[in-house]
Each structure stands twice: as structure tokens, then as C-alpha cells.
Amino acid sequence: MPLIETVDLCQKYNGHDVLKKIALQVEPGEVLSLIGPTGAGKTTLLRLLDLLDTPTSGRIYFAGTEVTRSGKTRSETRRKMAFVLQKPVVFNASVYDNVAYGLKWRGITRNELYQRVSGILETVSLSALRDRNARTLSGGEIQRIAIARAIALEPELLLLDEPTANLDPISISRIEKLIANIIHQHKTTIIMTTHDMRQGQRLPNKVAVLINGEILQTGSSRDIFTSPHNQEIAEFVGTENIINGVITTSEEDLVTINTSGKIIEAIADYPVGEEVCACIRPEDITLANSQAPSSARNSYAGKIMQVVPIGPLCRIEIDCDFSLFALVTGRSVEELDLVRGKTIYATFKATAIHIIRRER
Predict the structure, then answer these.
(1) 156 with 187: CB under 8 angstroms?
(2) What is the pLDDT of residue 157?
(3) How far is CA 312 from CA 271, 338, 344, in A?
(4) In the β-sheet with 286-288, what is the strand arrangement from edge to edge?
(5) Handedness of CA 334, 338, 344, 345 (dihedral sign)
(6) DSSP SS3 for 222
(7) In angstroms, how far apart are the furthest CA atoms of the chain?
(8) pLDDT on residue 201
């Protein structure tokens, strides 16, 4: 039985559809990442799941019980949840008291309170700051306080709204490690929102893509990032190579696609004449100074138009009569002497291509 389930969940504000027929199922112990652009409705959905707001229509179930509108049931269910906001509020008190706040309302003994809060402060690496005023700490430390305060309540469902937004890389790494520890040690069911594509792949075991108030695809991170259902999802998850073409031949699921007069071979079951997009992730493209024998079905000579460093990697734009973007290491750039204006061979396998119907 799902821990949390929504059926045709809709929300309107001022006559505007913010969420449209949201259908979600999250099993106990599962980690779901809601990814989508700013304004897609992610925070609105979390507020509905936390029973802070009431939906315009649709139903919410918690452990099989409908909790959409019943006041008493909603109050009881909210005690089983914890919600960490994107910009958490901390009280003008010590770190210890901030974490202990919710537990004091639950009436646990003083000794148990001390033991639990001390253990949680150790988990989130804030023991050394226990007596500091929480409002004097950094953004990353405040986020850890908020997460500590939430897990202190031992919730069945933990909701995290953009838990690393606006944090520096070191703080992001610490928060992600903390969330990973919660996942592995406490087996807590987690629903988190993010627009960080790498984070959306690292932490969850299920991903839902929310765009313009609709869930367009749900699946494993591999499914979402390598096999997007449509062009809108492909563009959002970073499939930079989305090449328009027309199926010219199809035989035993091996198709050829004509694009700008060049032929691309791929695995697909679309019929001849179908207008499609060939989606290739930049990391699946291999670059070489010459055309070497290979099992890859697709190899094209092209001129390098741009070389853009991205941390330890480089994004290479190549004009092969259609644009291709490859992602290679800085070392490969040096060894292959990848500079603007140079002719290079770009190669990729038929199996590395995901074909979707072109949106007209």
C-alpha cells in the first residue's frame, strides 16, 4: 500500500490552474524527487501533501486513508509528517533549543529529549554549535538545523522543498550527504523538490517531472534522463542534442533518419515518413582526430564552433551540418587539441539515441 497517494489532484489560484490532475503514488521508504522549472507547481504540491492547503479538487490518501478535507484526520496525519521549507525559519534561540522545540510539544521526558536531540545534532554535525544562537549561523548550517528539527520528530513522511537552493557547493555536499544518511539509516519516505538535475539523479529512486502544473513522466532517474517521453522533458533534463529529422527506412527496429541531408541510424519502431527527434546526451558522443573503425553506426566530420569549460569538463559545439554538443574531460581537450575552427570526428552508437515523435 502506498504511504502517500494523490488522485486527480488539482489546485487553482485566482482562476489559474497551478496543478492539473496530479496522480502520484509513493511507497513506504521510497525517495521521490520532483523536478521541474521554477513556477512549475512543485512547492504548491508539497503544501498540499503536507495538508497545509486544501486542493480545489481531487483526493489525497495517507496509508490508505483519505485525508483530503477531514479536519480531525488531517491534524492527526500532519503529526506523521515533517516539512522543511526552502528558506527555513529558525527561532532566536540556541541550536539545541531549535531542534528540541517540536519534541517539547510532544511531551517526552527531559532525559529522552536530551538523548534524542544530542544524537541528532551528532548526525547533522552540529554538536559543536549546540549552544550557539541559530540566527548567527550560515545558510547551510540553518538548513541542517531545519532538517534536524524535522527528523527529530521521526516522521513517516519527510517533505523537502529545494533543500540546497542558494547554498554554496560545500554546503550542498553536506546537505546531500545528510539526506543520504537519512535515507539509508532511517528508511524515511522522502519527497523532495529540486531543479538541480544532478541532484535529481543522485538521491532518489524515483523521479517525477512536473512542468506547467502537470506530471509529464514518472520513473527511475535513468528512465527520465535517458528516455524522456517528449521534447519538453528532453530539453529540461539536459538532452542538449535534439535533432529533427524524418524516418527514411525502418527494418527490424533499425531506422535511418534524414536530417539536413545527413543520415543517422538509431533503434526505434517508428514508421517510414514519421517526423521525429533524435535525442543524444552530450556524454555519449566520442570525439577523435580521424575516422577510426568502430562498431558505432554514426560518425560525422564537423568543425568545432565553441569550447566551453564546465568545471573539470568541457562542452564542445560541433557543426556537422547539424549542431552537436559533446562533453569531454579537460585532459581530452588537451590531448586532441580541441580548438575552435578545427575539424573533428564525432561518433555515437545507434543504441545511444532516444527517438521521440516531433512536436508540431
Answers:
(1) no
(2) 96
(3) 41, 15, 21
(4) 286-288, 343-348, 298-310, 313-319, 323-329
(5) positive
(6) helix
(7) 76
(8) 77
- Distances in Å between the Cα of 183 and the Cα atoms of 28, 57, 180 are 12, 32, 5
Name residue 58's amino acid. G
Rounded to whole angstroms, the Cα distance separating 354 from 68 reads 39
**Alpha carbons 292 and 311: distance in angstroms, whole number:** 29
C-alpha cell at 26: 509513493
Does an H or E element contain 91, and which? none
d(CA 231, CA 277): 8
Please identify which residue in the block is written with the cell numbers 529529422. 245
CB of 11 closer than 8 Å to CB of 18: yes
Q: According to the model, what pLDDT value does residue 178 have?
A: 87
- The residue among 197 and 145 whose pLDDT is bigger is 145
CA-based end-to-end distance of the chain: 40
d(CA 228, CA 131): 48
Taking alpha carbons only, the member of 333, 325, 253 closest to residue 282 is: 325
Which position has the grid cell 519534541?
Answer: 103
